[in-house]
Write a structure and sequence with these properties.
With 124 residues, the protein is an alpha+beta fold. 15% of the residues lie in helices and 53% in strands.
Length: 124
């Protein structure tokens, strides 16, 4: 058996292992309090969908925009892809959380807006 194809396969496998172990996503997470409600916001550097939910990395998908000031804006979407919350986290860690429920007929139910504060979550 020719050793050249085996050597090429070994090189490809080793290169794949090197790339996969050195391309870990940077994760930025916040724990925010709005009144009695606690919400976690998670942002990934590798293109993975941001999350808004009950723990770091757990919850509905979100789209994140970053303002030139460093403020982060999370737009949470439900399973149908419809935006249901918009949260702005200022560089000072103050935050504004807006929520609305959209009924099947298109009417908005129970709109609300609260101010609160956030803290960065240290990940290990």
């Amino acid at each position: 058996m020719d050793a050249a194809p085996l050597a090429r396969l070994s090189t490809i496998i080793l290169a794949s292992l090197f790339v996969s172990t050195n391309c870990l996503a940077e994760i930025l997470a916040f724990k925010c309090a709005f009144g009695g409600q606690q919400i976690y916001f998670t942002r990934y550097s590798d293109g993975t969908s941001a999350r808004v939910g009950t723990q770091v990395g757990v919850g509905d998908k979100a789209v994140v925009s970053e303002h030139k000031s460093g403020a982060l804006i999370f737009v949470e979407t439900n399973m149908d892809g419809i935006p249901v919350t918009l949260t702005t986290i200022e560089p000072t860690m103050k935050a504004v959380h807006s929520r609305q429920l959209l009924l099947p007929d298109g009417r908005v139910l129970a709109p609300s807006q609260q101010t609160g504060s956030c803290e960065k979550v240290e990940l290990r």
